[in-house]
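How a chain folds remains the central question behind the approach discussed here. For one protein, we set the task of working out the structure tokens from the amino acid sequence alone. The sequence in question and its structure tokens are set out directly beneath this paragraph.

_____
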Amino acid sequence: MAFTSANGRTQTALADINITPLVDVVLVLLIIFMVTAPILQSDIEVNVPKTRTVKQITDERVVITINKDQRVFLGNDAININQIAAQLRQKIRDPRNQSIFVRADENVPFGAFATVMDAVKQSGITNVSIVTQPLEQARTQQNGAKP
């Protein structure tokens, strides 16, 4: 857009939009999302068993959770125990190379855990890991101290 000044010169208006603040805001929102996404991944409260050796989970995997009331969840969605194999077959393209995590409350009877493990094996997944909590972290939580 151009306009003429009082002395007869033609000047152009500054019409460029500065997108630097927009990029800054988007990057801050992206960082906030990346930090909070793992925290929001599991809303189901489970007291997992405590062990001496624990492998840290670094990437996102399919998680089956059994809470203390023996309700079964695939991700964050409640699921019928008889539908686990079918749901896993729909969700996973390559069951031979896929690994899955099972989180079970430490008070869940072994029969319920074995039934879930059987359903996972029926879906064709052979790489199953059991989620546990490190012993030293368990002790600090029992004593009321923050880890």
Remarks:
- The mean pLDDT is 77.
- Residues 50-142 form a domain with the Nucleotidyltransferase; domain 5 fold (CATH 3.30.420.270).
- The CA atoms of residues 41 and 76 lie 8 Å apart.
- Strands lie at 2-4, 10-12, 50-51, 62-66, 72-74, 77-79, 99-104, 127-130, 133-134.
